[in-house]
Design brief:
The structure holds 2 protein chains of 2 kinds. Chain A has helices at about 20-30, 30-40, 45-65, 70-75, 80-90, 95-110, 125-135, 135-140, 155-165, 175, 190-200, 205, 220-235, 245-260, 270-275, 280-285, 295-315, 325-340, 350-355; strands spanning about 210-215, 215. Mean pLDDT of chain A is about 85; it is low at about 355. A two-stranded antiparallel ribbon of chain A has the order 1-2. In chain A, helix 17 runs antiparallel to helix 18. By secondary structure, chain A is mostly helical. The longest helix of chain A is centred in the N-terminal third of the chain and has 23 residues, at about 45-65. The two termini of chain A are about 40 Å apart. Chain B is built from 10 helices and 2 strands. Chain B has a two-stranded antiparallel sheet with strand order 1-2. The longest helix of chain B is centred in the last third of the chain and has 39 residues, at about 190-225. The chains are: A mainly alpha, B mainly alpha. At the A-B interface, helix 7 and helix 8 of A face helix 9 and helix 10 of B.
Chain lengths: ~350, ~230
């Protein structure tokens, strides 16, 4: 069965149908996932499988309830993509029910209650991520140190065991897995800097911690690179336009550069912000969601830039170490307004006349 | 009697202050983290509604039209003060748990709304019954929302029943499941909004279903009538 080829408004012709676009975005995350597996172990693969299964079951059941064409909707891969993005954002060894609840929330509440694909106001993966983060703060912040500096290494079997029972097959829990070779519990690079700043250290002092490798977190840099490669491929193959990721990265870099110049001890450098945390994956994979992002060219530039702005603001002064999810959700709310004021001139209308109508 | 039946349906379902009029959402969303908190505030609100509706109905013929609103507000404030003092005396812990939301009953638009829209135009018995039914409708939603949030958030039902009902009620608490990591979203304010939205959606769903059923039964009736044309004109 052929599907109508859909593109987000303004309705340009697009050779790919929704399923193909979503599949390409899924494939583009592979380099990042591989880097993640290499540095942080197999946990992420288990989370992805759990998320995709939950998403398909939830979407299928709701489609049956709404008496829609279940098979066709499942084949558009939008649920799979949302599940995948959510699984990428949660700690690899979080208990299984975290990702199951999160994916259910993303598909059932955030997406289907608003009318399904194309009608959701908020990015399903990010709304679910925020829901999980405020509901289960302990599980959602249990990030593991990279395997090279972890005291305990763990196998695929251990990962599976931990996700389902909370303990590895040899009886270690996630708290113990978080311990590094120096005997202290490890945090993410952003978290480490935030805590050190609160304790009165400078950014430079914070970066002497074991988890850093010069400027960047060990392992995190390569994960970010992986997503960058995937993202650039998406831009090149015209699955996403460059406007949102471009303006988002530029605004985040510019803003963090300004603060870095003002006080380099209190505010981390632009490159630190860029390659730690989830700005890259956020810019290319999350903010570019065709449904909940702005649709006009000018609007996309504003949308991306505002996300970058919010990320730096929240990272510097907010309570949470990273901010991509919050920033994206805040700007999702502003999208109708942005789109309203950035309507392009329609052919045959003068600029002022189109504004009045 | 028909009027009383109508008032019951209006208060509890068709014109429910929480689900349809969407009045008094501030206390509704803020205190419904547990069943008992919801029930406590619901009963307090019902008592105030009952008292204010009776009083407003009693004085409705003496109150000058121009200053009726301030007078109604003062009547309501008096009853809220009474309820607040009574709760302070007899259910002190619940009084503390509900905190500012007991005095804030004054600002609950459902109460002034009933005083203005119904009690000031109708005789005492009807006004009192209207207040009671509106109060029950409001309490019902508070309790249901409280139950949803308590169940999801803490895994219990009726926890802290002794705050409202006295020592013996401690055994009423039902532990459905125990968990080390409660579902905080349900207890936090966003959970209240989500739960409220789901409740309203459910009510609309039921209404739609009832409407459809009524429609189809009406259709059946008209078909029957067509066969006996002329007999009842």
């Amino acid at each position: 069965m052929t599907m109508l080829s859909l593109s987000s408004s303004p309705h340009q012709h697009n050779r790919r149908d929704t399923g193909q676009v979503m599949r390409l975005v899924c494939f583009a995350t592979i380099p990042g996932i591989l880097a993640n597996v290499w540095f942080f172990g197999f946990g992420i693969l288990i989370q992805i499988s759990l998320a995709i299964i939950t998403a398909l079951v939830t979407e299928g059941v709701i489609m049956e309830l709404r008496k829609k064409k279940t098979e066709r909707v499942l084949k558009d891969y939008s649920a799979v993509l949302a599940a995948l993005l959510l699984a990428l954002s949660i700690p690899p060894l979080a208990p299984w029910w975290v990702i199951v609840i999160g994916t259910f929330f993303a598909i059932a509440i955030v997406k289907q209650l608003y009318g399904g694909l194309g009608y959701n106001m908020f990015n399903p993966a990010m709304a679910a991520y925020v829901m999980l983060l405020i509901s289960f703060p302990v599980q959602m912040t249990s990030w593991l140190p990279p395997q090279s500096i972890a005291e305990q290494s763990y196998s695929f079997w251990d990962a599976l065991h931990t996700v389902f029972t909370g303990f590895t097959s040899t009886g270690f829990n996630v708290e113990q897995l978080k311990v590094g070779i120096d005997g202290t519990t490890m945090a993410t690079p952003l978290d480490q800097v935030k805590t050190s700043l609160l304790q009165g250290y400078t950014v430079t002092e914070a970066k002497t911690h074991l988890i850093f490798d010069g400027q960047y977190g060990k392992g995190w840099l390569w994960v970010a690179f992986g997503y960058l490669i995937g993202g650039l491929y998406l831009v090149k193959s015209k699955v996403i336009s460059w406007h949102i990721p471009g303006s988002m990265l530029v605004s985040a870099l510019f803003l963090s550069f300004v603060f870095f110049l003002i006080d380099g001890d209190q505010y981390a450098s632009p490159l630190f912000h860029l390659f730690n945390g989830s700005i890259i994956v956020g810019a290319f994979f999350i903010a570019t969601d065709p449904v909940s992002a702005s649709t006009t060219v000018k609007g996309r530039l504003i949308f991306g830039a505002a996300i970058g702005l919010w990320i730096i603001i929240i990272r510097n002064w907010g309570g949470y170490p990273d901010a991509v999810a919050f920033a994206v959700l805040i700007m999702n709310m502003a999208v109708p307004l942005i789109d309203y004021y950035t309507q392009p001139r329609t052919y045959g209308h003068k600029k002022k006349a189109s504004k009045k109508s | 009697m028909n009027e009383y039946r109508n008032l019951t349906i209006q208060g509890v379902w068709k014109n429910n202050p929480a689900l349809v009029q969407l009045l008094g959402l501030c206390p509704l969303l803020a205190v419904t983290a547990t069943v008992i908190n919801g029930l406590g505030l619901g009963i307090a609100t019902t008592l105030v509604l009952l008292g204010s509706n009776i009083t407003v109905s009693l004085v409705r013929n003496f109150v000058p039209n121009e200053i009726r609103i301030p007078i109604f507000v003062m009547v309501i404030a008096a009853f809220v003060t009474i309820v607040q003092l009574v709760m302070n005396a007899f259910t002190f812990e619940l009084y503390q748990a509900l905190g500012i939301f007991i005095p804030l009953i004054v600002t609950n638009c459902a109460i002034i709304g009933r005083a203005e829209a119904y009690a000031s135009k109708n005789p005492v018995p009807l006004a009192a019954f209207d207040g009671l039914m509106m109060g029950i409708g409001f309490t019902l939603i508070l309790v249901i929302l409280g139950a949803m949030r308590e169940l999801l958030g803490y895994g219990t039902l009726l926890a802290g029943a002794d705050l409202l009902l006295g020592e013996w009620a401690k055994d009423l608490t039902i532990v459905v499941f125990t968990t080390d990591s409660p579902f905080l979203l349900a207890i936090l304010p966003p959970g209240a909004f989500l739960g409220m939205g789901l409740l309203i959606a459910f009510k609309n769903l039921v209404d739609k279903y009832l409407e459809k059923r009524a429609e189809s039964s009406q259709k059946a009736k008209t078909v029957q009538r067509a066969r006996v044309t002329g007999t009842d004109i």
